[in-house]
Design brief:
The complex is a heterodimer of chains A (about 800) and B (about 350). Chain A has 22 helices and 43 strands. Helices cover about 25% and strands about 30% of the residues of chain A. Chain A folds into 6 domains: about 60 residues, Phenylalanyl-tRNA Synthetase, Chain B, domain 1, CATH 3.30.56; about 110 residues, Nucleic acid-binding proteins (OB fold (Dihydrolipoamide Acetyltransferase, E2P), Beta Barrel); about 200 residues, Phenylalanyl-tRNA Synthetase, Chain B, domain 3 (3-Layer(bba) Sandwich); about 70 residues, Phenylalanyl-tRNA Synthetase, Chain B, domain 1 (2-Layer Sandwich), CATH 3.30.56.10; about 200 residues, 2-Layer Sandwich (BirA Bifunctional Protein, domain 2), CATH 3.30.930; about 90 residues, 2-Layer Sandwich (Alpha-Beta Plaits), CATH 3.30.70. In chain A, helix 6 packs across helix 7 and helix 21 packs across helix 22. With about 350 residues, chain B is of the alpha+beta class. Chain B has 2 domains: about 90 residues; about 230 residues, Bira Bifunctional Protein, Domain 2 (BirA Bifunctional Protein, domain 2, 2-Layer Sandwich). Helix content of chain B is about 40%, strand content about 20%. In chain B, the strands form 2 sheets. Chain B has a 7-stranded mixed β-sheet, with helices on both faces. A two-stranded antiparallel sheet of chain B has the order 2-3. In chain B, strand 6 and strand 7 form a beta hairpin. The longest helix of chain B is centred in the first third of the chain and has 39 residues. Chain B is rod-shaped, with a radius of gyration of 43 Å. The mean pLDDT of chain B is about 90. The chains are: A alpha+beta (about 800), B alpha+beta (about 350). The complex binds zinc ion (ZN). The site of zinc ion has 8 residues of chain B, from loops. The site of zinc ion (ZN) has 8 residues of chain B, from loops.
Chain lengths: ~800, ~350
């Protein structure tokens, strides 16, 4: 809503309050003023001129030599290129020395040999938005109405020096979608009186009810429909002040009749519609729901198909308007219109909202009906428009109003105790203070001891419950006056749940290990949503996605991380290491919420370690990433039950991928992205992992317990085992551990060899075994015995021979 | 003989002086003190001396031997020290060259902001609650006083999956669910961070996915002044002790009264600048007293219980804190962006 500071003064005395001060006060007490605009700011030396003569330039077809009276002793000669300039027009003249928007300085000039001492201006040149310039002047200079006074400041006459406050209205404050509503608000803030328009005007003798009949068949959708009839109107431009006010409010002036309906819409917040009564043809209005397959051509020249839930205004035969949304082309007011039927109605908000949504039409009218107009203003607005039509369109207003009004306009009665107000706000207001605030709001209120009874006016449809009254008190009294306290109640310790603490630990460990936290989108395209998924199934899809790229909920985090990897590769990053924790979405049944599993994923490529000037450069490999995960398992206390198994996963390298098991459950994978997938995504050798965190979170870790530091020496035995290439190191290690019994404290692989000194198809794995007993020194015999068992076991179970 | 010994001492001392390395020094030692050395030779001639002179000469010879030994030892220490110095000089390195880098990742800036806020409220007795990102219409809207057809639903166009299931448009459904779990018994004191989704085209200030963090306190006798005091504590801890707050009336369907909180602009100190659009204040969050309908729907008696709630966008907070100018940076995961947030801010 755009509010003209000048216009507002018609209703409230703003003396002593600058536009900026007013904006600040409005913002602080309820409605955010998002900006103050003065479209003609700083423009001087532009006056109203009278074109005395206008001749074609002898040397240039498109130029005119105009002699213009600008209220000075001598007329000035101005060369004007506008096609619509003509003798006897009242125009805006930028005199020599004027500066127009865009720092455009007007200087003396010579155009094809003829002197030009100024410029005749279009409204655009004076800072008016093109879409708000009346159509007839959109392509050329502007003409003032005939009564404009020569020599007067044009900016003043156009009210372009007015300050326009842009109000950001929240959905509850529909009351402020009118100048009167804003006036009540400002009156309350400043504690000043609100002056309502006087509605005196003379009516002609004929009765409107003799001229037209109104029938409302859909009372639920249309509880109030009132019409007035104005005859013998003279279509023409509306007065300059009215045009300026419409322009300031963002509405383009058309002609006096249309402008007046728009003016009253802005003033009262009540949308009106003017029909050309002769074009309605039947002298009859029937309001009803549309019929199946019914059509209407609207004012914007579009043919619209109607549905049976759309409310339409008809002439008894065919629709002449979509109720509350847009008028029909067939009954539009035109230059030839003489008799006008003026509609003022209350259309049910839900009905208008649905209809305007269906047709994709949101107008000044529909946006007000949608929020519910003030039923008490329906008739007042009709009277106001009739008055203006008689004044500015020379119309004869037939006496009386035709139509039906079935709406209950009783004011809602609310009661609240002072104690409650003070308890909720944490303040110490008195009954008198509260009553005074309601007096300023022009809301009837009375106190019965400490209970305050309030009669909520129909213009304030947002006042429904006690808390709404508390808000009125608080906002007008001022939030600055509310003290600052902290809740007084039994305090319990706050904290993070175990799951939240583990999540933070995961971040700490992975970041400590060199991975950077990424955050990617949950929505992705159909293909990416499914790729790399641990649970392969159809992804959850949006009903109406904004784009295919964001249409499915992810089943895996890896594809989006790979996208981030590509993005960084393309930006010359030589080491990329990401992890992310977040939800993946698994549909269980279409009527229930999908299951949301928290996953941890990572993607690493490029240099794992580099120290360039010392010539150290180590690209990432499988074991680097596995090492990071192992550190994580250790810190989370689950490592004892973690197992890796050679595995095949879609889009992963078949020979470099492991499934990760926690106890017997597969919780994830780690592996190199399949070379063909790498190629597709423009990646180099890249390793990824994805893990379901649920089992990790719920795993019962053993409590930490100190074990004594060994006081007796340990004995180290190194063995190199030759096995077939297919034998897995992890299996050998397990066999050794199992066979070594309680004395074997640790087994560590320290060498892997396969190559020319080895028989084909064989490899050698060297392990370092540590034997120890915490309670005593081991004897050689004991170690030999245990070690023999180990060697026996690896031979039996893995065909391992000691390397000679 | 005495002459000879003195001469030997002089010669030996001179040669010790001249020795430039340990080898030469050793040669001197062998030459004078060795078994075939001149002192031994001299001592062999002692037999010719009288019994009277013999001990005197013996003592002198020992003295000479000791003196030479001492001077050799002293010289040896000197030479050894020089040798070590030389060796260390050869071992010296350029200590200004870069150290071997230790790989280290970073928190995403949004995580840092969220964790800071979580920790601040945890210190005031809040717990952290989470909920599903795909929500029922009921929890996302209806339970929050946004029945179907409510005009305020337009404020946040949503991504629906079915008629009844959607991507949550705010973290408020977590509040509704938590209150419901409390079965009408206070206190509820929670902070709820998480991802939310709205139908917006991604540009510098809009993102179809973003973060939110909300707080909720419900108990008997929770006052609006408690909200103001809590927000004041938050603002000062988060943005600096010198910041002031102000509340402005606003509208949210789930709170009544509703307010927005501004903090004084740090850049201009309240005088007005481009960052605060000339107002001296910067909008930080929305808040209000929990709407009685919301309390009732979650099973709380609104006659007995009151509560306050507030909600904010970590993206915006991070933008203000770090001067980030484009919301898309948070989701592009450009390492050149992310690495800038490696430093832990400690106040
Ligand atoms: Zn500022």
């Amino acid at each position: 809503m755009f509010v003209s500071y000048k216009w507002l003064q018609d209703y409230v005395d703003l003396s002593g309050i600058s536009p900026e001060e007013l904006a600040e006060k409005i913002t602080r007490s309820g409605i955010e003023v998002e900006g103050i605009e003065v479209s003609g700011k700083g423009i001087e030396n532009v006056v109203i001129g009278h074109v005395l003569s206008c001749e074609k330039h002898p040397e240039a077809d498109k130029l005119n030599i105009c002699s213009v009276d600008v209220g000075e002793e001598e007329p000035v000669q101005i060369i004007c290129g506008a096609a619509n300039v003509g003798k006897d027009q009242k125009v805006a003249v930028a005199k020599v020395g004027a500066v127009l928007p865009g720092n455009f300085k007007i200087k003396k000039a010579k155009l094809r040999g003829e002197a030009s001492n100024g410029m005749i201006c279009s409204l655009q040149e004076l800072g008016v938005e093109g879409k708000l310039v009346p159509k007839e002047f959109a392509e050329g200079i502007y003409n003032f109405p005939k009564e404009a006074v020569v020599g007067e400041d044009a900016i003043e006459a156009l009210a372009l020096n007015d300050s326009i406050l842009e109000l950001g209205l929240t959905p509850n404050r529909a009351d402020a979608m009118s100048m009167l509503g804003v006036a009540y608000e400002v009156g309350a803030i400043l504690d000043r009186k609100v002056q309502l328009p006087e509605l005196d005007y003379s009516q002609s003798e004929g009765r409107a009810s003799d001229r037209v009949t109104i029938e409302v068949e859909a009372e639920k959708e249309n509880p109030i429909y009132l019409a007035k009839v104005i005859e013998n109107v003279k279509i023409g431009p509306s007065p300059q002040w009215m045009q300026s006010r419409l322009t300031a409010a963002g509405i383009r002036p058309h002609n006096n009749v249309v402008d007046i309906t728009n003016y009253v819409l802005l003033e009262y917040g009540q949308p009106l519609h003017a029909f050309d009564l002769d074009q309605v043809k039947t002298n009859k209005i029937v309001v009803r729901l549309a019929k199946e397959n019914e059509k209407i051509e609207t004012l914007d020249d579009a043919v619209r198909e109607l549905k049976p839930h759309h409310l339409v205004i008809t002439n008894g035969e065919e629709p002449v308007a979509i109720a509350g949304v847009m008028g029909g082309a067939n009954s539009e007011v035109s230059g030839e219109t003489t008799n006008v039927l003026l509609e003022s109605a209350y259309f049910a908000p839900a009905s208008v909202r649905q209809t305007s949504k269906d047709h994709g039409l949101r107008s000044e009218a529909s946006s007000r009906f949608e929020k519910g107009v003030d039923p008490k203003r329906v008739e007042l607005a009709a009277e106001r428009a009739a008055q203006l039509l008689s004044l500015y369109a020379d119309g004869d207003v037939l006496s009386g109003t035709v139509g039906t009004d079935k709406m209950d306009k009783t004011e809602k009665q609310l009661s609240i105790t002072l104690e409650k107000i003070n308890r909720v706000l944490g303040m110490k207001l008195t009954v008198d203070e509260v009553l005074d605030l309601f007096r300023r709001l022009q809301i009837e209120a009375a106190a019965d001891q400490s209970t305050i009874h309030v009669s909520a006016p129909t213009r304030r449809g947002d006042l429904i419950i006690e808390e709404d009254l508390i808000e009125e008190v608080a906002r007008l009294y001022g939030y600055d006056h509310i003290p600052m306290t902290l809740p007084v109640h039994e305090t319990k310790p706050g904290g993070l749940s175990a799951r939240q603490q583990k999540r933070r630990l995961i971040r700490q460990v992975l970041e400590g290990a060199g991975l950077m936290q990424a955050v990617t989108y949950s929505l992705t395209n159909d293909q990416k949503a499914k790729e790399f998924a641990l649970d392969v199934r159809e992804p959850v899809k949006l009903m109406m996605p904004m784009s295919e790229e964001r249409s499915n909920l992810r089943l895996s985090i890896v594809p989006q991380l790979l996208e981030s990897v590509s993005y960084n590769l393309a930006r010359q990053q030589d080491r990329i290491a990401f992890y992310e924790t977040g939800s993946v979405f698994l549909e269980e049944s279409s009527s229930e919420l999908p299951r949301e599993d928290e996953h941890l994923a990572g993607a690493v490529t490029g240099l794992w370690h580099s120290h360039a000037w010392q010539g150290e450069k180590k690209p990432v490999d499988f074991y680097a990433v596995k090492g990071v995960l192992d550190l994580l398992w250790e810190r989370l206390g689950v490592i004892e039950d973690i197992r890796y198994e050679q595995s095949r996963e879609e889009h992963l390298h078949p020979g470099r991928t492991a499934a990760i098991y926690l106890k017997d459950e597969k919780i994830g994978y780690i592996g190199q992205v399949h070379p063909s997938k790498q190629k597709e995504l423009d990646l180099k050798e890249t390793y990824v992992f994805e893990v379901k965190l649920e089992s990790v979170y719920t795993y019962e870790t053993a409590p930490l317990h100190y074990s004594a530091i060994p006081r007796f020496p340990s004995i180290v035995r190194d063995i190199a085992l030759v096995v077939n290439s297919e034998v897995l190191g992890g299996d050998l290690e397990r066999i050794i551990k199992h066979a070594g019994g309680s004395l074997l404290k640790s087994v560590k692989l320290f060498d892997l060899y396969q190559g020319e000194h080895m028989e084909k198809g064989k490899k050698s794995l060297a392990f370092s075994l540590i034997y120890m007993d915490p309670a005593r020194t081991l004897t050689d015999e004991e170690v030999v015995k245990a070690h023999e068992k180990v060697l026996h076991a690896v031979k039996e179970q893995a065909g391992a021979e000691l390397r000679g | 003989m005495e002459e000879r010994l003195k001469q030997l001492k002089q010669e030996a001392t001179a040669q010790v002086e001249e020795a430039v390395d340990l080898k030469q020094l050793n040669d001197v030692r062998v030459a004078y003190l060795g078994k075939k050395g001149p002192i031994t030779e001299v001592l062999k001639g002692m037999g010719k001396l009288s019994a009277e002179e013999r001990p005197k000469m013996g003592a002198l010879a020992n003295e000479v031997r000791d003196d030479i030994t001492k001077s050799i030892e002293a010289k040896q220490q000197l030479l050894e020290k020089a040798e070590i110095e030389k060796k260390l000089a050869e071992e010296s390195i350029d200590v200004t060259l870069p150290g071997r880098p230790v790989n280290s990742g970073t928190h995403h800036p949004l995580t840092s902001v969220i964790e800071d806020i979580e920790d601040l409220f945890i210190s005031m007795g809040y717990t952290v609650e989470e909920g599903p990102e795909v929500e029922k219409d009921y929890y996302n809207f209806e339970a929050l006083n946004l029945p179907k057809g409510h005009p305020a639903r337009d404020m946040q166009d949503s991504f629906y999956i079915t008629e009844d299931i959607l991507l949550r448009t705010h973290t408020s459904p977590v509040q509704a669910r938590t209150m419901e779990r409390h079965q009408g018994k206070g206190p509820v004191k929670i902070i709820c961070p998480g991802k939310v989704y709205r139908r917006d085209n991604d540009d510098a200030t809009h993102s179809h996915q973003f973060m939110q963090i909300e707080g909720l306190v419900v108990d008997e006798n929770i006052r609006m002044s408690d909200l103001k005091g809590t927000l004041n504590t938050f603002a000062k801890k988060m943005f600096g002790e010198d910041r002031e707050i102000r509340l402005r009336p606003s509208f949210f369907p789930f709170t009544e009264p509703s307010v927005e909180m501004d903090i004084s602009c740090k850049i201009c100190g309240g005088k007005g600048c481009s960052v605060c659009k000339g107002t001296g204040w910067i909008e930080i969050l929305g808040a209000g007293m929990v709407h009685p309908n919301v309390l009732e729907m979650a099973g709380f008696d609104s006659k007995k219980y009151t509560g306050f709630a507030f909600g904010m966008g970590p993206e915006r907070i991070a933008m203000l804190k770090y001067g980030i100018d484009d919301i898309r940076h948070y989701y592009a995961n450009d390492q050149r962006f992310l690495t800038q947030f490696g430093q832990k801010e400690i106040k």
